[in-house]
Amino acid sequence: MTTARELALANPLHVQAALQGAALSDLPRKSRLAKLNIPTIIFAWRNDKTHPESTAKILADTLPNVHSLNITDADDTGQWVSIACQFLDQLSAENRRKSAA
Predict the structure, then answer these.
(1) Do residues 27 and 59 touch, judged by C-beta distance below 8 A?
(2) Which end of the chain is more exposed for a tag (fewer CB within 10 A), N or C?
(3) Confidence class of residue 62 from pLDDT cuts 50, 70 and 90?
(4) Can you tell me the distance from the alpha carbon of 46 to that of 77, in angstroms, rounded to the nearest whole number?
(5) b/e sequence 52-74, b meaning 16+ C-beta within 10 Å
(6) Residue 44 DSSP one-character state
């Protein structure tokens, strides 16, 4: 079952409470985030109360291997799939080049 389907079937009050709890949670210390040298892209949309744009900016400033920070309007999130696919294609090509060397 997909996450979207599970959320659709879940009690809306439970989903809301879980998302609100996540939004109120602190990020790990910046010193710990800075050690995560993982190729990353970050997506956020403006005025998202659950996942604030400020958190995306903190992550982009702290994580050492951020390839892009994409902040859009909620209506433009459909573009995220193609951005993610391009990112994964780029990583794959880099890995193939490294393996061939």
Answers:
(1) yes
(2) C
(3) very high
(4) 11
(5) eeeebeebbebbeebeebbeeee
(6) E
Place of tokens 């959320």: 7
In a domain, 19, yes or no: no
**Looking at the domain assignment, is residue 22 inside a domain?**
no
Domain boundaries, position 96: 28-100
If one counts every other C-beta atom within 10 angstroms of the C-beta of residue 86, the result is 13
CA distance 99 to 90: 14
Counting the structural domains of the chain, the total is 1
Q: For 7-55, what is each residue's pLDDT tens digit? A: 778 888 887 887 777 777 778 899 999 999 999 999 998 988 777 899 8
C-alpha 84/C-alpha 50 separation (Å) is 21
> Structure pTM?
0.70
